[in-house]
Each structure stands twice: as structure tokens, then as C-alpha cells.
């Protein structure tokens, strides 16, 4: 069983590394941000409620993310473990996750903390492009698509996320520092935190994670 939490500021590379590790371990990569953006894209009643919150880089209420997590983690593909990217982000979310897992007789194995400075995160996010079709993520400098504006995997159009404007990125970073960073202490008390230097190259961060997890 492998239950991993990826925790770190915006642009620290959580999504990029979660995809690589999930692929290696053949377990699902669950990205709370992707699930919430999909609700917005489909204009569901939840999506309409949270659209402004996402655009401003604030946190969606704990009651909403808790329910999303509960439903997602009950699906059979999570049976052998999963990587949760972007959840929990508050103390209450951490407690909710613990309750969900406890009811399934499981617990978090490791928390990977991606540490990075705001300046690097800003550069990464302003040049990030995401695919409208399959959600693949590129970086115009560090991980560019083969054909400008098009996804290598599915040929879909690439776009800049609404919340990747400088002011919103700064706000998201502040929210991370005030709401989410304290969780590191919470998990450190359980001795399950692995801190990685997320400012290194994609390949070097992957190496660091694989070594730390012994995979
Ligand atoms: P979410 O989508 O989770 O955004 P985030 O946490 O801010 O993280 P990002 O997706 O921006 O960055 P990342 O760390 O995954 O980096 P990536 O790998 O893409 O959440 C969005 C919003 O949803 C939140 O603001 C909030 O409103 C809401 N939300 C989500 N979860 C919530 C929760 N639990 N509670 C309440 N609200 C919630 O990499 C970034 C770029 O850098 C890419 O271009 C990539 O190619 C490149 N890159 C990656 N690694 C490297 C590297 N090592 N070197 C160079 N470039 C790299």
C-alpha cells in the first residue's frame, strides 16, 4: 500500500512529479485542483459556486474538498494506494483525510514536501501551459511541447491557467504559507515527512523522491 501526500506551494512541481511517480507505481494521481477545475469547466452547480474562489487563488471551503475527497477515495482504483496532490491544505482537511482513511483501515504513509522560493515559482507558473484536452502540463522553457501551442500527447490546445497571473500566484503563495505550511509540523510529529529541494531540475527532483521512497 502506498498512500502519499504531495504538499508544496504553487509551482513547486507537485503535479509534474505526482504524474511520474503514479506512472511508476501504477497508482492513481488525484489532483484536487484538477477535480475542482473540471467542475468549473462543466459549469456544474459546484463549479459555478467555486469559480471565483479559484480565480482569486483562495481556498475552496473545507466542507467541499472534504466531500470530494471522501467520494474519490472510495473508488476501487484507490485500493492499492494513491498520490493526493493538493489535499490536504488545512488542518481540518488533514483531520478529514485521517478520518476517511481510518474508516478504510488505512493511513498516510509519506508526505512529500516540495520546498521552493516564490521567485522560482513565479517563473514556472508564468510559463506553464496546460492542455485543454488531456490536462498534460508543459513549461515553455524547461519542458516545451514539440509544436508550439499544441499538446504532444493529444494535439489539444495549450492554455495559460486563469490563476497563473502574477497577482494571483502571489496570493496563492501567501495562502500556502498561512494555511498549508503549518501542516508540515503536524505530519513531522508522525515522522512521515520527506522534504525535497523542488528548485532542482525535473529529473533531479524525481531522483530525490524515488531514492527517498526507495522505489
Ligand atoms: P492546484 O491546481 O492544486 O494548484 P497549486 O497547488 O497552486 O499547484 P500548481 O498546480 O500551480 O503547481 P504544481 O506544484 O502542481 O506545479 P506543476 O507540476 O504544475 O489548485 C488550484 C486552486 O484550486 C487553489 O488555488 C484553490 O483555489 C483550489 N484548491 C485546490 N486544492 C484545494 C484544497 N485542498 N482546498 C481548498 N482549495 C483547493 O509545475 C509548474 C510548472 O513548472 C509547469 O510548467 C512544469 O512543467 C514546470 N516544472 C515542474 N517541475 C519543474 C522543475 N523541477 N524544473 C523546472 N520546471 C518545472
Label the CATH architecture: 3-Layer(aba) Sandwich
Number of domains: 1
Distance between the termini: 13 Å
- Beta-strand proportion: 15-25%
- Count the strands? 8
Estimate percent helicity: 40-55%
Q: How confident is the prediction overall: mean pLDDT?
A: 96
Bound molecules: BIS(adenosine)-5'-pentaphosphate
Q: Order of SSEs, N→C?
A: EHEHHHEHEHEEEHHEH
Category from helices, strands and their pairing: alpha/beta
Biggest β-sheet: count, sense, barrel?
5 strands, parallel
Question: Regions with pLDDT < 50 over 5+ consecutive residues?
Answer: none
Predict the CATH topology.
Rossmann fold
Number of helices: 9
Read across the widest sheet, the strand sequence of neighbours is: 2-3-1-4-8
Amino acid at each position: 500500500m502506498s498512500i502519499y501526500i504531495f504538499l508544496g506551494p504553487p509551482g513547486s512541481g507537485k503535479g509534474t512529479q505526482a504524474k511520474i511517480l503514479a506512472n511508476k507505481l501504477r497508482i492513481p494521481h488525484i489532483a484536487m485542483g484538477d477535480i475542482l477545475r473540471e467542475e468549473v469547466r462543466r459549469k456544474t452547480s459546484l463549479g459555478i459556486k467555486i469559480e471565483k474562489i479559484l480565480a482569486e487563488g483562495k481556498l475552496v471551503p473545507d466542507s467541499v474538498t472534504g466531500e470530494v475527497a471522501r467520494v474519490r477515495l472510495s473508488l476501487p482504483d484507490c485500493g492499492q494506494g494513491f498520490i493526493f496532490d493538493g489535499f490536504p491544505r488545512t488542518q481540518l482537511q488533514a483531520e478529514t483525510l485521517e478520518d476517511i482513511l481510518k474508516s478504510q483501515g488505512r493511513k498516510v504513509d509519506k508526505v512529500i514536501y516540495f520546498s521552493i522560493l516564490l521567485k522560482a515559482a513565479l517563473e514556472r507558473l508564468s510559463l506553464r501551459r496546460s492542455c485543454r484536452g488531456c490536462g498534460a502540463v508543459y513549461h515553455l522553457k524547461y519542458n516545451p511541447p514539440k509544436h508550439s501551442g499544441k499538446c504532444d500527447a493529444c494535439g489539444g490546445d495549450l492554455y495559460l491557467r486563469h490563476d497563473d497571473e502574477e497577482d494571483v500566484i502571489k496570493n496563492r503563495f501567501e495562502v500556502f504559507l498561512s494555511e498549508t505550511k503549518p501542516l508540515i509540523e503536524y505530519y513531522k510529529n508522525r515522522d512521515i515527512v520527506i522534504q525535497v529541494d523542488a528548485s532542482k531540475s525535473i529529473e533531479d527532483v524525481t531522483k530525490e523522491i524515488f531514492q527517498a521512497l526507495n522505489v
